Amino acid sequence: MRKRPGFGSLLIIGGHEDKNDEKVILRMLAKKVGKSGKLVVATIASNSPKVMFEEYDACLRGLGMRHIHHLQVESREEALNESKLRILRDTDAVFFTGGDQLKITSQIGDTPIFSRVHEIYNAGGLIAGTSAGASVMTETMMVAGNDDQSHRIGSMLRLAPGFGLLPGVIVDQHFAERGRIGRLLGAIAQNPRMLGIGLDEDAGILVRRGRFQVVGSGAVYVVDGGKVSFSNINEAKPDEPLCIYGVRLHVLNQSDSFDLKKRRPFYHPAEKVEEMLV
Predict the structure, then answer these.
(1) Residue-wise pLDDT tens digits, 115-159
(2) 9-272 belongs to which homologous superfamily?
(3) In the chain, what percentage of residues exceed pLDDT 70?
(4) pTM assigned to the model
């Protein structure tokens, strides 16, 4: 993997990425790491870490990757074990699998493993994550909130600190499949400075140098609250639905890109991603 210090990449995936057919997202991961690169698959969030690692190991080796290692941490005490840190030595990329995002942050946050992940990213490496592993990439992560309904002022919307690799953004996953537009709007209403990104299943974004490109068969939704003129987030009764004016919504498909600084989408034919995978 060719790395440039200060130019790390993020591959953030909405969950249930295709592992059987075109495998576009995992092909992108394999392409970025390269056959000679070292990938560590971190199953910290999972309740079935061994099974999950074996599934990804088989799939990624089928895509030509040779150097795949497993990082599993069962407790915060174990995260301080030097043997766990050694797994991340000379690593080009780390891939955080799905499960419970709080297990990731509570067990490795502010540990040598956490610092090493940041070092890999700052040295020009790739940090990837799917589902729960996607949520932890940002400075603020979604932990819980009602699905399949409009956001109510009193709804339990739980946010927590994430890894901080992508500041100014909050990510939600399994987006269309679980009807999560309401809770993402609720999060943006609480802090319109944040940019909300909703990722469908089998949809990912490759983030580099202040821009991202969409990869996969699902859609990516960008909720921009920068020009919100009004919301009732501080005034309404707990059982009232959220009212918010002036939100901008962009829906992007494969190969489309988005400038995170200018908050502007750009259309590209879907074939552009396929060209990158050849």
Answers:
(1) 999 999 999 999 999 999 999 999 988 876 566 556 656 666 778
(2) Class I glutamine amidotransferase (GATase) domain (3.40.50.880)
(3) 91
(4) 0.92
Q: Please name the residue that has the structure tokens 């974004």.
A: 205
At 180, the pLDDT band (50, 70, 90 cuts) reads confident
**How confident is the model over 34-65, as pLDDT tens digits?**
999 999 999 999 999 999 999 999 999 999 99
Half-sphere exposure of 278 (CA within 13 A, CB side): 5
Instruction: Name the pLDDT band for 183 (thresholds 50, 70, 90).
Output: confident
Q: Are strands 38-42 and 93-96 parallel, antiparallel or unpaired?
A: parallel
- Domain coordinates of the chain in residue numbers? 9-272
CA separation for the pair 269, 247 (Å, rounded): 27
Q: To the nearest 10°, the Cα dihedral for 28, 33, 35, 38? A: -140
* Three-state secondary structure string covering the chain: CCCCCCCCEEEEECCCCCCCCCCHHHHHHHHHHCCCCEEEEECCCCCCHHHHHHHHHHHHHHCCCCEEEEECCCCHHHHCCHHHHHHCCCCCEEEECCCCHHHHHHHHCCCHHHHHHHHHHHCCCEEEEECHHHHCCECEEEEECCCCCCCECCCCCEEEECCCCECCEEEECCCCCCCCHHHHHHHHHHCCCCEEEEECCCEEEEEECCEEEEEECCCEEEEECCCCCEECCCCCCCCCECCEECCEEEEECCCCEEECCCCEEECCCCHHHHHHHC
Which tokens hold the place of 153? 């002022």
